[in-house]
Amino acid sequence: MTAAEPIVEMHDISISFPGVKALDGVDFRMFPGEVHTLMGENGAGKSTLIKALTGVYQIDSGSIVVGGQRRQFQGTGDAQEAGVATVYQEVNLCPNLTIGENVMLGREVRGRVGISWKATHRAAAAALARLGLADLDPTRPLGSLSLAVQQLVAITRGTVFEPTVLVLDEPTSSLDANEVEQLFGVIRGLRDRGVAILFVSHFLDQVYEISDRITILRNGQFQGEHLTAELDRSTLISTMIGKDLATLRSLDAQRAQREHEEGARPVVRARGLGRAGGITPTDLELQPGEVVGVAGLLGSGRTELARLLYGADRADRGTVEIDGRPVTLTSPAVGLRHGLAYSTENRRDEGIIADLSVRENIILAIQAQRGWLRPVPRKEQDRLAERYITTLNIRPADADRPIKNLSGGNQQKVLLGRWLATNPDVLILDEPTRGIDVGAKAEIQEHVLELAGEGMALVFISSELEEVVRLSERILVLKDREKIAEIENGADVTAETIVATIAGHDQNAEVVA
Amino acid sequence: MTQTYSRLRAGLGALAHKPYIWGVLGIVALLIVNVTRDPGYLQISVNPANGYLAGNLLDILRESAPIVMISVGMCLVVATSGIDLSVGSVMAVSGAVAMEFLQAASAPQSTMSAAMALLLALTVSSLLGLVNGVLVAYVRLQPFITTLITMLAGRGLAKVITGGQNTSASSDGLAWIANGRVLGFPVVVIIAIALALLIGYLVRRSALGMMIEAIGINETASRMAGIKPHGLLITVYLLSGLLAGVAGVFSTATVMTVDVSNTGYLLELDAILAVVIGGTALSGGKFSLGGAVVGALLITTLDKTVVFLGVPSAATPAFKAVVIIVICLAQSSRVRALFRDRRGPVRMKERVA
Amino acid sequence: MSTTTQQPQRRLLTSLADTIRSFVSGSRLLRLNAAAMPTAAALLIFVVLVTFGQVQYGGIVELGTISSLFINNAYLIILAVGMTFVILTGGIDLSVGSVVALSSVAGVMLANAGVNPWIAVLVMIAIGTVMGLLAGVLVDRFDVQPFIATLATMFLARGLASMLSTTPERLEADSAILGIATRLTIYDGPGVNDLVVPPSVIIAILTVVVAYVVLHRTRTGRTAYALGASEQSARLMGLPVARTRVLVYVISGSLAGLAAVTYTARLGSAQNVTGIGWELNAIAAVVIGGTLLTGGAGYVLGSLIGALVIALMNLLIIRDGSIPPESTTIITGGMLLVFVLLQRLVIARRRKG
Fold first, then answer.
1. A365/B225 touch (CB, cutoff 8 Å), yes or no
2. In this complex, do B321 and C336 lie within 8 Å of one another by their Cβ atoms?
3. How far is CA A491 from CA A37, A92, A257, B140, in A?
4. In this predicted model, what pLDDT tens digit does every residue of B224-270 receive, in sequence order?
């Protein structure tokens, strides 16, 4: 990693969306012939930074210099012209067209009557061959390929523009180990040809395997740039989640200690619960009055596990027993009927009904259970709304205000109220404290302990490890879509323990399938 | 004095926040146009011979009855972020069924026959609505293509039922529904108002309204909250079909003839327009049945005004198209953002994409 | 006599079989893409219909019949081509029937008012262009759902046509526009059994050829396919999404204007109620021809076959005589529904597999 001139220099970049500061004075640079990884949890601003670079978003302030020239691209096409090619998170190709066409779309070779397909496919084949994909027939439809190979085709498309900068936004999220190796071979080849590569991945092992340099973002802010060789995993993780190890250690002293009956019958028992592409078969038992924490970074399979448990996704293997009886969870409605409730991590898209009032949002789940012919009487509605507004301290205390006008923390409390109103035996909370202010966060944590004290079983998912450690009696540690450990919480367990478990776990030792 | 004034102000203030205030203002504006042409336009007289109320306002009310019916149905469908393009054709089918039945009935004048004709017409209409609902809810076909097919095939069905004829029949019962009076007031208006109120009551007193809005606003979140959309979707499409059937009986019974080509022709746009004027967004969600009724009245007033001003009635679709284009533009994020923030639209678009 | 009639028939049959064979085996379409399967199925249906018609009623595989099939449906072929562009991008154009009405009424009135006939023809096409542009801008720039935008232009065009005239407008008998439908006898068979190709049919075939070249051999065409697969992908791949999306509606509108030219030339008159329900025929032709209603896959040649399937079906219904002609829209709608359901099934299969 010679101290060459950086090919990309982004300085003091800020971007705001209505109500959110997505990027706040971020610096980022890239060097030719280097793989630079962008790390950060959900909402850290990784995708926003990439879209700022490629001109999909316009920046509010700051400067972008590419190849020594100050630039402000007007979109992906414009960026491509200037040598910045991007392969986005989801495969953004057209499965209905051929491999060759996807590679060459917008760059087709012209013949006598419009496009010459022979020449175009020849050019595509050459581009594929350069990346070691000579065995792909460019005239085959893209849709017939596996996602992994499609991803490689997308990268090939990126290289057709002979880029000096190649952006790979989570290219490995749908690949298996062999496919990742194939991809890394391609990336190394490009790097050795002098291309600057921006890489985003949630898989730590991959990050350490491929990248030369790491920049860390958190909550839209720059947290530091390090050479990979000089950054150990624990530091990386604690910087990402924003607590240094000393703080983590002191926090866990506040942990709540609870007693509950030994050997009680589990309210939920899941055996080998799994779903292809979601999470590998996992066992989980929940006792009444118990808080089970799920720790793991984004993409570790924590949300996938929760969705299977609730019935939001259908498991394709494994069984679930509730109160000792086997059940098939086919939909959220079924989950609710069996006394399960799931508060989603995606509050905006899967949680709130934006235009409905606080009251309506609270009673929605019980109303759904009763069916539309048996409305919850208005008096009962008011009583429930009043109750949860008071006990959860929802502000403003106005039941008739549309929920979209509340702050994130208060929206989260309304949703908590929705689930509590169904009087569940099991409550699954997925990132209930993300993106909300400190006060609301503490209140929600208190409610969790209170509910457990009343005999409810809770699953608590959070990327803030100290929170998990503080609240849970047992902690499931997930990594790369797999349960890697189940830790009985105790005085000797700290957030550091979990960081060490995730960082120290050697993926290759566990890969069996 | 000051008290009445402030109360009046408060009342007006509340009205100004109703989504259909523009509809009400539109009706007033059109009526003013008509009054300037004919100062006696708003007069209501009592026919001394039979005690019937008469006047342009009553004509508008009578003619709006079928449109009110399909608008109420359309409103519920639109709230689920769907659309029902078949309402006009279902009207024709309903009219065709009623007329064919009465023509073939042995005692068409009996109340029994009228009731049977009504029942049969409404059953067939509901079935068409049911077909739409099943295709949308279970097969997950796009609502517009589903109802486009029933719209065009429905008109064909009406023609097949009557053998391509414009069937006429006579039935005092049905004629009374369309042309009769109670205390001088048109029966058809009373029925339309009663049905609109009944459905409004049903929708708002049960949880149907809220759940329809929930799936229209955010279907994923609604599903996560345990709502099962299938039954709701089928209910609204069925209701829309049923109400279109009522509208079909209304408009055919006036003349006791079904015009298979023209009964209900192009009325789907009227219904969509009424719903949009009434403050319900085409993207679904929060709906206002009262607004849809106001919208329906506005459209009828517009129809009457256009004719009153001497424009051929066949040309009215052009006016309505202009109105709907303007409303769509007003609702689009690009135009809204133009008024707020110059940089807005670009970003909105990207976030959507 | 029988030998003379049979010879050209046999020759035609063998050449038809050759075309099919070369289409099925040699063509790059089938080898490449499962998306060509539905188009092949449409071809099969066409052949089955031809065979069935020939066996059942006779006189189908005859130069005269085939000529008139093309002559009577040149407009449908042109409309289907335009609709293919729109549907490939995942949109829909409900306005084509009304645009034909507006365009033809305006054209005939202009020609009769003494305007140079060729300028009148250009105006007819331009009217379609403008209506398409309006719809395209509404869809792309203002995020109006395609079916609402084109529903609005559908009513706008119908209303404008009615403003121009509500009675049939006849072209003067010596108008040059009629020349577009002049029957040029290419092969003089016995009796009425001639191979007749008027310029209108040549125009229709040329439209198909040009559309094929545009869709398969230009970047604009490929962008239309990409857009239909995923707007987001197309945008992120740096393709000109906005321009292409407006363009497909402009193409569809302009071709509706061209269809109006050929239709008017054949009929010699125009009326404001022309073209009701033609949007269904055009959509059905496209979908039967193998284009996915959700966009992204299909062939304009398939749409040609789809149009011929519909045309042939109508012909057979008339030949049969026992099926009421009123039920054709039901049959067309039913076929459309079946094909849309099949598409759903195929896609669901593919997702699973």
1. yes
2. no
3. 36, 48, 10, 54
4. 999 999 999 999 999 999 999 999 999 999 999 999 888 988 898 89
* Other CB atoms within 10 A of residue A388 CB: 23
Q: Measure CB to CB from residue B221 to each of A336, A351, A360 and give the nearest one.
A: A351
Q: Count the neighbouring beta carbons within 10 Å of the beta carbon of residue C28.
A: 12
Domains of chain A: 8-231 (3.40.50.300), 245-339+425-513 (3.40.50.300), 350-423 (no CATH)
pLDDT on residue A181: 84
Yes or no: say if B208 and B235 are a contact pair by the CB < 8 Å rule. yes
Helix C278-288 / helix C300-320 crossing angle, nearest 10 deg: 120
Which residues 251-270 in chain B show a CB within 8 A of chain C?
A: 266, 269
Say yes or no for a CB contact (<8 Å) between C226 and A94: yes
Chain B interface disruption, residue of A47, A364, A422, most B CBs within 10 A: A364
The conformation of residue C179, written as its DSSP 8-state character, comes to G
Q: What distance lies between CA B324 and its chain's CA centroid?
A: 15
Residues of B in contact with C332 (CB under 8 A): 152-153
Q: In angstroms, rounded to a whole number, what is the distance separating the alpha carbons of residues A298 and A481?
A: 10
Phi, psi (rounded to 5 degrees) for A273: -70, 125
CATH number given to C38-49+64-352: 1.10.3470
- Nearest alpha carbon to residue A261 among A281, A280, A242, A287: A287
Under a CB-based contact definition with an 8 Å cutoff, are residues B196 and B68 in contact? yes
Cis ω before A163 (30° cut-off from 0): no
Query: Using N-to-C axis directions, what is the helix angle for A117-130 and A147-160, rounded to 10°?
Result: 100
C233 vs A contacts (CB less than 8 Å)? 92-94
Crossing angle of helices A408-421 and A378-391, rounded to 10°:
130
Is the Cα torsion angle C199, C200, C203, C208 positive or negative in sign? negative
Confidence grade of residue A510 (pLDDT, cut at 50, 70, 90): very low
Size of interface B-C (CB pairs under 8 A): 130
Model confidence at B347, pLDDT cuts 50, 70, 90, reads: very low
Interchain contact C280–B (C-beta under 8 A): yes
Task: Please tell me which chains touch C, using 3 or more CB pairs under 8 Å as the contact test.
Answer: A, B
Q: How far apart (Å, rounded) are the C-alpha atoms in residues B229 and A332? A: 12
Domains, chain B, with CATH or none: 20-40+52-310 (1.10.3470)
Instruction: Report the candidate in A353, A369, A388, A347 with the shortest Cα–Cα distance to residue B207.
Output: A369
**What was the ipTM of the complex prediction?**
0.83
The distance of C54 to chain B (nearest Cα, Å) reads 27
Q: How many CB atoms lie within 10 A of CB C267?
A: 18
Report the residue from A75, A79, A94 with minimal CB separation from C230.
A94
From residue C143, give the alpha-carbon distance in Å to each of A8, A85, B331, C3, C245: 35, 28, 10, 62, 11
Check residue B353 and give its pLDDT. 30
Kindly write down the DSSP assignment for every residue of B9-36, as one continuous string: HHHHHHHHHSTTHHHHHHHHHHHHHHHH
Residue range A406-422: average pLDDT?
Answer: 90
Contact between B273 and B83 under an 8 Å Cβ cutoff? The reply is no
Written as six digits, the tokens of B10 are 């408060």
Quick check: A93 contacting C, CB < 8 Å? yes
Confidence class for position B350, pLDDT limits 50, 70, 90: very low
Give the amino acid at C192. Answer: V
* Paired tokens of A494: 């700290």
Nearest to A421 by CA among A461, A459, A387, A444: A387
| Beta strands across the sheet bearing A84-87 | A84-87, A165-169, A196-200, A35-39, A213-218, A221-227
Closest-CA residue in chain C for B328? C144
Q: Which two tokens stand for residue B60?
A: 């508008």
